[in-house]
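General statements about sequence and structure are easier to judge against a single worked case. For one protein, we set the task of working out the structure tokens from the amino acid sequence alone. This step matters because it turns folding into a mapping between discrete strings. The amino acid sequence and the backbone structure tokens for this protein are reproduced below.
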Amino acid sequence: MNQKTFFLLSIAFLLSFSQLNAQTNKFELGVEASPSITFLKGSSFIENFYDPTLGFSGGLSFQYNIGKRIALRTNIAYERKGGISRNNFYYDGNLIQNSSINFNFDYLTLPILVRFSFGKKVKYFVNTGPYFGYLLSQTFVTKGDNFNTRTNDYTSATNKFDFGVSFGTGLQYPLKEKIYLSSEIRGNLGLYNTIPNGDTKVNSVNLLLGIAYRL
């Protein structure tokens, strides 16, 4: 399955999801963006040499409110994950000091979450469920003193799909009658090895900020 097919299937899923609410006025459509802390887990080499770094995500959100307390929620988003190494290294026989190597994974992600809410005007919620990711690119970005920044593309050597579990908590509060603001802390635990025949999983903790409109 290529990138275009994954994108089209995601859109088809979201459109089908929205049809559930065509006559019930319980569907919410919104946008979300997030700064995040992202890190790698797996082999001892990865965990010893790569530290957490900053990432981001952004995209569209969709929610179907089954009842007052339970909802199905998903979103399609562009997300950057990875880690950073800050060790001096040699390049062409020269010592490169104050160096960093960013291990970047860029994904198109699609979580499928069950959300439980409580409260009246301001609603507090928890949600959890699986997420699926399709790899757009995987790069090493190398920087250092007296060294031109270099980007090496390893997309073809990386598994195209990712899978894991998402879990989060936050609150939603009304701005107007049908417009809602939300904030959420969400963890994404990768369960699938991103490197063939390797042991590298990508994880993130996101601070999601969003605005939604109830149709």
